[in-house]
Specification:
The protein is an alpha+beta fold and 377 residues long. The protein folds into two domains: 185 residues, no CATH class; 178 residues, no CATH class. It contains eleven helices and twelve strands. Strands 3-4-9-6-8-7 form a six-stranded mixed β-barrel. A two-stranded antiparallel ribbon has the order 2-10. Strand 3 and strand 4 form a beta hairpin. Helix 2 crosses helix 10, helix 2 runs antiparallel to helix 11 and helix 8 runs parallel beside helix 11.
Length: 377
């Protein structure tokens, strides 16, 4: 009797629309995961081609950016006394207001103890000379173009209530973020922000043939508790963190989709019990127990959800691959190959099934507990 009853429920007209509703929701998840997998694979591939930098930074442990980091300037002397250190370059990074003859601009100001050494280490191209005192400055090529500043111009820098006039003695191209900064000797930065014995960070490098792990471990033991060592150009770690954040976002978005699946399953089960009230009442009149009615409604909703989820996964994969193929036809230089991992597909199917069961439990229980004589025949 249960098999016949199950077939009877599936002959209802709303089954196809229910499957399609679940499929469209799962298609969103499958397509997003497919595109994300492609992006993550490209990011990991890029990380393997880039060498890790040999430069280290000492920052404040609680800082979120170089502009809010503050460490003791005396740490510079500590590093200079170590024979394993190749060079030490203390820096102070500030957010300042640059005033030209026309208007004010908010810029990043980088104060460096030895500007000339900084440019040599970066292999910078300089149109002019390097700043040598607190009345001189070098401007990055990008910043100079954006603000229409030329070599020889005088500008006013403001940090809080402190003002300082400097002359741009050189335009630099470093091909780093410094191309969008104003670079001054650290004395100028201290004059603007106050010489409180603090700097933003210390850049340093180890000598050749020095065991990096042992050297960094030794230096870390000499630092105060509020300081940390960060290695530069950690592209692989950056990509991994970026991928983790993307996956966290997708997981949060997935929760919203599965919540909608719960609601949709509730509606599907409630519609089924309302449209099949006569059939269910007849089954009870013929002696069907409450457990059988509950299982029938539960099985119908779960089967509908699983069928819709399978269709949704297929549509999501096929849809993204079709879209990427069409994009390659329009723009041959764009290469996108979306794919969905097997474990991701299984996870989507299982979570959709679980959400569907969760959504239909109440309508199924309510129908199972209703006496058949209470149903309109």
């Amino acid at each position: 009797m249960s098999a016949l009853s199950f077939k009877m429920l599936f002959r209802k007209g709303g089954t196809a629309s229910s499957i399609l509703a679940i499929a469209l929701l799962v298609t969103i998840l499958a397509s997003m995961n497919s595109i994300t997998n492609h992006i993550n694979s490209q990011a990991e591939m890029l990380g393997r081609f880039v060498n890790v930098g040999e430069t280290y930074l000492i920052l404040n442990r609680n800082s979120t950016a170089t502009t809010d980091s503050q460490i003791d300037a005396e740490l510079t002397s500590l590093l200079n006394n170590l024979t394993i250190i190749k060079y030490v370059l203390p820096q102070r990074v500030l957010t300042a207001t640059l005033t030209t003859s026309s208007q004010n601009h908010t810029i990043t100001l980088r104060g460096i103890e030895d500007v000339t050494s900084f440019f040599k280490l970066r292999k910078a191209y300089i149109n002019g000379t390097a700043a040598k005192n607190e009345t001189e400055a070098n401007i990055g090529e990008i910043l100079a173009t954006a603000l229409s500043i030329n070599v020889g111009d005088e500008v006013t820098l403001t940090v809080g209530n402190n003002l300082l006039k400097v002359k741009v003695v050189g335009m630099v191209r470093i091909q780093t973020q410094s191309d969008a900064e104003l670079i001054v000797p650290i004395e100028a930065a201290n004059r603007l922000a106050g010489n409180n014995g603090k700097i933003s960070f210390i850049e340093f490098a180890l000598k050749e043939n020095v065991n990096g792990e042992d050297a960094i471990s030794h230096i870390a033991q000499l630092l105060p508790k509020d300081a940390k060592i960060v290695r530069t150009q950690q592209l692989k770690e950056f990509m991994q963190e970026m991928n983790a954040q993307t996956l966290n976002f997708l997981n949060i978005w997935s929760l919203a989709v599965y919540a909608i699946v719960v609601v949709a399953s509730y509606v599907i089960a409630a519609r089924l019990t309302a449209e099949s009230s006569y059939e269910l009442a007849m089954l009870k009149a013929l002696g069907a127990k409450k457990g059988l009615i509950f299982i029938l409604v539960l099985a119908y909703t779960a089967t509908t959800a699983l069928t819709g989820a399978t269709l949704g996964v297929a549509l999501g994969i096929a849809g993204t691959q079709t879209a990427s193929t069409m994009l390659r036809w329009v723009r041959p230089s764009v290469e996108i190959t979306p794919f969905l991992k097997v474990e991701q597909a299984l996870q989507t199917l299982l979570l959709t099934l679980f959400s569907s069961i969760l959504g239909c439990i109440y309508p199924a229980l309510k129908t199972a507990r209703t006496r058949y004589m209470e149903q309109p025949l």
